[in-house]
Design a protein that fits this description.
The protein contains 18 helices and eleven strands. The strands form two sheets. It has a nine-stranded mixed beta sheet, with helices on both faces. It is of the alpha/beta class and 480 residues long. Helices cover 34% and strands 12% of the residues.
């Protein structure tokens, strides 16, 4: 499943169709991706359809050593994110890359495989009805392509790439919605899979677009940790102030909310649903979440600039999210199986309410793809490493702990105070490398307890200065 507007973040029950490929030596070209300094071996894998004449874009970071270990495929989230956008993750995975090729496949409709953006490359309207109208126009221009984009197709294409590259068994790393894709691949092609690493788990049977309760839990944990911090505790009941701010939001505040870059009133009003989702987005990243108590405290005093700056962190972070692909998958595989009663239960008593769900519910009215349900998952024995953050606002640890009983070989890493996606944090990359080298060996995960939240922002200059008892005391409150 992964921001501010565009990232607010097939299942055919029949037996998977066989993937056949001509037996020819794949030819690679050298290419580069932002966020990774080394060259990559890049391929175009043909899929033989008019909507994807250039084929799938496949990028490989070759292993440093020719050890013969299975490659690790990186599966992006969204749905709608491109795997090529995960290139910065390679920096954390350098040790893995010593022995394992790392493969990124941009699925159809994403990134370099024909991004299905629907004209929302940079911005999307804050007004949901306008957004819905523009989305409907996009759908009417590409109804066939919209219908064919689904998780079944993505898994079939992944298997196609595995065969094209001549890989025997592979390992999968999935993040957010990429974990759903990985779990479906495990169901349909278990013979091709050696191990899985799932970060921010979106189980097959879990309705992850019911996100309000998870976001509320993440916010409450932030409030508890703030209260236990001597600097942050001085903000008092900032959680209540946040709720009051959202309750009292009106057209005047929406139109005078400052632009994150200029400080002048925004050109487009900051509507309440967008503000609530921006706060939810901040909870994804512990460093951003650490700024929230201060920003809310300042907003309660009439200074909206810190809150504007915080929301501005995510204003353009979702440019790579292909909206056409996002809605083809979300509407066919998630929204159609969620009832109004479930939305009401999930949103009751939360700061987010139905603001996250409403975006997709409105969009799906303009994106009438057929429902593509999943079959019930069957038992699988491949080793799986699960990674969760206790303050994840979209895929909390309970998903990994309660919905994967059909997996018989699981290890579980839980990062206290961790947000959404923790594979880069602390010792987690080292543990992933150890797991991939010996998936059946229990990990010594004691180092996970050493991963801590970033310090809370307590003043305009940042966190409070802390010193030991033998140092010369400095002024607290971030006044450096």
């Amino acid at each position: 499943m992964q921001r501010l507007l565009k990232s607010l973040i097939l299942m055919i029950a029949a037996t998977p169709t066989a993937v056949t490929m001509a037996q020819e030596e794949p030819t690679a070209k050298r290419c580069y991706l932002d966020g990774w300094g080394d060259s990559l071996a890049c391929y175009r894998v043909p899929v033989g359809e008019a909507d994807n004449r250039e084929g799938l874009a496949v990028m490989v970071a070759p292993a440093v050593n020719s050890s013969g270990r299975e490659p690790l495929y990186l599966l992006a989230g969204g749905p709608g994110q491109a795997a090529s956008d995960l290139a910065p993750l390679l920096n954390a995975f350098r040790k893995i890359n010593r022995e394992h090729d790392i493969v990124m496949v941009d699925r159809r409709g994403a990134g370099r495989s024909g991004a299905f953006n629907c004209g929302f490359e940079r911005e999307m309207p804050a007004d949901l009805q306008q957004f819905s109208a523009e989305l409907a126009e996009c759908y009417l221009q590409h109804p066939g392509f919209a219908e064919q984009l689904n998780s079944r197709q993505a898994v079939e294409d992944l298997e196609r790439v595995r065969r094209f590259l001549g890989h025997d068994k592979i390992a999968l790393w999935g993040g957010s919605w990429g974990t759903r894709t990985a779990l479906l691949y495990q169901q349909w092609y278990p013979q091709s899979l050696r191990a899985l690493v799932l970060d921010g788990v979106a189980p097959i049977d879990t309705k992850v677009f019911l996100a309000a309760s998870a976001a509320e839990h993440a916010l409450q944990q932030l409030a508890d940790d703030c209260a236990a911090d001597s600097g942050c505790a001085r903000f008092g009941n900032w959680r209540g102030e946040l709720q009051q701010l959202l309750n009292d939001w009106n057209d005047t505040r929406a139109r005078t909310f400052p632009d994150a870059l200029t400080g002048a009133p925004t050109e487009e009003p900051m509507l309440r649903w967008a503000l609530a989702n921006a706060i939810r987005s901040a909870l994804y990243d512990p460093a951003a979440a650490a700024q929230l108590p201060y920003a809310v405290d300042q907003a309660s005093r009439g200074n909206y600039l810190p809150l504007s700056g915080l929301t501005g962190l995510f204003a353009h972070s979702s440019n790579g999210m292909a909206m056409g692909l996002t809605f083809s998958v979300a509407c066919a595989e998630e929204l159609n199986r969620i009832t109004p009663e479930e939305v009401a239960r999930d949103s009751a008593g939360t700061f987010l309410g139905s603001a996250f769900f409403d975006l997709f519910a409105t969009g799906c009215k303009s994106w009438p793809v057929q429902a593509k349900p999943y079959s019930a998952p069957e038992p699988r024995a491949q080793p799986v490493l699960l990674i969760s953050g206790t303050a994840d606002p979209i895929t909390p640890p309970v998903y990994a702990h309660t919905a994967l009983g059909y997996l018989s070989d699981k290890q579980d890493l839980v990062v206290r105070g961790g947000g959404h996606i923790n594979s880069r944090r602390g010792c987690i990359p080292e543990l992933i490398a150890q797991f991939l080298d010996a998936p059946d060996v229990p990990l010594d995960q004691s180092c996970v307890a050493d991963i801590q939240r970033p310090p809370f922002m307590v003043a305009a200059y940042g966190p409070a200065v802390t010193v030991d008892s033998q140092s010369q005391p400095q002024q607290a409150g971030g006044q450096l």
